[in-house]
Amino acid sequence: MFYNPNNADSPRNGGLPFNPFKAIVAPRPIGWISTRGPLGDNLAPYSFFNAVNDAPMQVMFAGGLKDSIRNLRDTGVFAVNVVAESMIDAMNASSETVARGVDEFALAGVEKAECAQIDCPRVALAPATLECRVADVLELTGENWMVVGDVVGVHIRDEYLRDGRFDLALVRPVARLGYKDYAVITAPFELARPDELS
């Protein structure tokens, strides 16, 4: 079958009842973005999130014009908190659409901590948090925005380190799939590139 995203209602479009795009581009890590603004602190999960560079370290996330985007445009900073399996309910609670200025940390019962190099809250019990300075904010189509951030600091909770490595089997990070589906990473494995085998 062929699906045309610009003609989704056509019966010649495979008859799919739902857009398959987010299920195809999956799994996606969840960027649990925390910011501080003139109306207080904010915490919101973004499923369009990923790393885009490692030297220098950079991340991106995208979404509508919500408190997160407004705050970081004003302050120039934000933090990305890793969502562990144990935090699924809190992450989901923080996704609720609420009035501007509502503190989602309090709404979701999430403990706060301060970042080290930027004026921004972070999720105290997150397995890892990336402190970021805004590198660019781009307006996309459909009233969406993409933020690129330079990572200026990394917090890692000691219990998630094993032999000097951030152990994803211990973290069990949550990933976003399509529709209303999520996944938990439980069985990472190593795979060497062919040129690393010789």
UniProtKB/TrEMBL annotation:
Pfam families: Flavin_Reduct. It is an enzyme of class 1 (oxidoreductase). Keywords: Oxidoreductase. The keyword Oxidoreductase applies. One of its GO terms (molecular function) is oxidoreductase activity. InterPro entries: Flavin_Rdtase-like_dom (IPR002563), Split_barrel_FMN-bd (IPR012349). Gene3D superfamilies: Electron Transport, Fmn-binding Protein, Chain A. Residues 23-168 form the Flavin reductase like domain. Its EC number is 1.5.1.-. It comes from the Bacteria. This is Flavin reductase family protein. The lineage of its organism: Bacteria, Pseudomonadati, Pseudomonadota, Alphaproteobacteria, Rhodobacterales.
